[in-house]
Amino acid sequence: MIPAALTDLPLWPPTNLGRDPLVPLDPGERDRFDAPVTKVRLPTDATAWLVTRHADVRQLLRHPGFSADLSRPGFPLLRALPPGALSDRRGGFIRMDGMEHSRLRRMLTAEFMLKSIRRIEPLIRQTVDRTLDDLRDAGPPADLVATFALPLPSMVICHLLGVPYADHDFFQLRSRTLLDRDAAPELVREHVAQLRDYLHRLVEAKCAAGDRADDLLSRLARDRVDTGELAVDELVGMAMLLLIAGHETTANMIGLSTLLLLRDVPGRYAALRDDPDQADTLVEELLRYLSIVRTGLPRLALEDVEIGGQLIRAGEGAIAVLSTANRDPVVFDGPDEFDPYRQAHQHVAFGFGVHQCIGQPLARAELRIALVELARRFPDLRLAAPTGQLPTRDNSIVFGLDALPVTW
Amino acid sequence: MTGRVRVDRDRCCGAGNCVLTAPEVFDQGDDGLVLLRFTAPPPQTLEGVRRAADLCPAGAITVD
Q1: What are the extents of the domains in chain B?
Q2: What is this model's ipTM?
Q3: How distant is the Cα of A66 from the closest Cα of chain B, in angstroms?
Q4: CA pair distance A173, A191, nearest whole angstrom
C-alpha cells in the first residue's frame, strides 16, 4: 500500500507511452513539473526533489554537499537495487564521491582527452565507413539502428577497451538489462554477475599476457595493476562502466538525430552534407535538444542546501532533470525550437560537476563523423515508417529508438 | 577585472570543455588534467576564457 500522502505527489519519471520521441516531456507533464523544484514520488515509493532549471541543475550537480553514492541510506533510487548489489561495486566510480571517485577517474582522463580522441578519429572514420557499407548492403529499406547506430559505437568502444566485438550480442543484451528501469532485480543481478565474470576473465588474460596489446584495458593492466595502484576487481568494474556507457548513449543519439534531421524541416539533412563545417555546432544542438538521459541524475543531500529557493535537507534526495535544464528559456532563446545554428554549448546533456561524462570528446567525434558521412553517402535517405509508430526505449535510463526504418 | 586566470588541477576532472572552448589558452597534460598556456591571456581570448570558466563542470577555472 502506498500511503495517501505519497499518492498526492506526482510520479517521476512520468509514464507517457506513445509520445513523440523528439519531445522529452509532453506538454501536460511539463505543467506538473514546471516549478523550479517539485517534490515527487519515485517508482520505489521514495520521495525526492525534482530540480528543473539550468542554473539550479548546475548548482546541484557541482555542489559537494550532494552525493552520487547510491549505497547511502535514503538515496533516491528509480528502481530497487538487486539483492547483493552493494557487495561488489569496486571500480564503479560513477557512484562514488570525493577522492574515491577522483582516484579512479583520473586513471582515465588521459585516455579520453581531446588529443587522444583526435588520434583515433581515423579508426572512427573507418568504422563509420564499414557500418555504412553494412547499411547499404542491408537495404533499401533497412533498420538504421540495427545496422549503423548501434554497431558503430559498440565497435569503437570494443576496439578502445580491447574487448572482442564478436561477443557483442552477449554484452549488448546485458548492458540493456542494466539500463532498463523495469528489469526484475534478480535478472539485473544475474546479468551484472555474468558481465563481471566475462570481463574478469578478459582482464585476467590481459594482466597475464607478457606482450601487452595496445588497448585501454591492457594499458591500465600494465601501468596501474602491475604497479599495485589498481586492483584487478577495480579494473573489471571500470571496464564494465565504460562498456555500458559506450554502448547505448551514442547509439541512441545517432538514431534520434537521424530522425530529427530527416523529419519536419526540409533541407536540414542536406545542409549537413553541403556544409560539414557546421557539424560541430549542430552536434551541440542535437545534444541539447534530444537530452537522452531524460530521467535525470539522482543525488542525495549530505547537508542542508538551498536550491532554487527550496531548502533540501540532509538525507533528502534530489534529481537533476537535464532535459528541462536544456530547454530553460533563461539560457536558450526559443528553447523548444531546434536551431542548428545556435551556440548551444552551455547544455548539460553530459551532466555537470565532477561526474560529467568523461567520454564526451569521443561521443562528439562519433556523432559528428557518423552524421556527416551518413548524409554524404546516403543523400536520398528518408524515413520508411510513420514516426508516430517508432518503437522507443521508454523504460531505459538512456532514451532512444529501438529501430529506425529508412530507405533511399 | 584583470583577466588573470587560475586553474586548480586538484579540482579538475578532465572533462576537456576548456580545451574545446578556448584551445589557445587551455591544454591538457599527459594526465588529461588542465594546463594553462598563459596566466595573463591575450585580451582577445578573454571571452573564450570566461566561457570556459562558466562551462567547467568542476569549477576548476577562475578569472579575476
Answers
A1: 5-57
A2: 0.95
A3: 14
A4: 9
Question: Residues of A at the B interface (Cβ-Cβ below 8 Å)?
Answer: 61-62, 102, 105-106, 108-116, 345-346, 350-358, 360-361
Model confidence over A253-269: pLDDT tens digits? 999 999 999 997 778 89
Distance CA A182, CA A188 (A): 10
Q: Which domain holds residue A301?
A: 4-407
Handedness of CA A244, A245, A250, A253 (dihedral sign): positive
**What does the pLDDT look like over A17-58, one tens digit per residue?**
557 899 888 888 888 899 999 999 999 999 999 999 999 999
Residue A320 β-bridge partners: A51, A297
Of A113, A346, A358, the CB nearest to B55: A346
The amino acid that residue A134 corresponds to is: D
Rounded CA gap, B53 and B64, in Å? 11
- Choose the weakest-confidence range: A34-38, A123-127, A164-168: A164-168
Q: Report the chain B residue with the minimal C-alpha distance to residue A112.
A: B32
Q: Flag whether the pTM goes above 0.80.
A: yes
User: Is pLDDT of A1 > 60?
Assistant: no
Contact A388, A243 (CB under 8 A): no
The CATH label, of 3.90.1150.10, 3.30.70.20, 3.30.540.10, 3.10.100.10, for the domain at B5-57 is 3.30.70.20
Nearest chain A residue to B32 by CA distance is: A110
Write the CATH number for A26: 1.10.630.10
Q: Choosing among A356, A357, A368, which should be mutated to test the B contact, i.e. which has the most B CBs within 10 A? A: A356
Question: Phi and psi of A37, rounded to 5°?
Answer: -135, 130
Per-residue b or e along B24-40, where b marks 16 or more CB atoms closer than 10 Å to that residue's CB? ebbebeeebbbbbeeee
Q: CB of A297 within 8 A of CB of A62?
A: no
Distances from the Cα of A384 to the Cα of A141, A389, A400, B63, angstroms: 7, 11, 18, 52
> Per residue in A74-93, pLDDT tens?
999 998 887 777 777 899 99
Give B25-61 pLDDT, tens digit per residue.
Answer: 999 999 999 999 988 888 899 999 999 999 999 999 9
**d(C-alpha A313, C-alpha A180), whole Å:** 30
Contact yes or no for B14 and A61 at CB 8 A: no
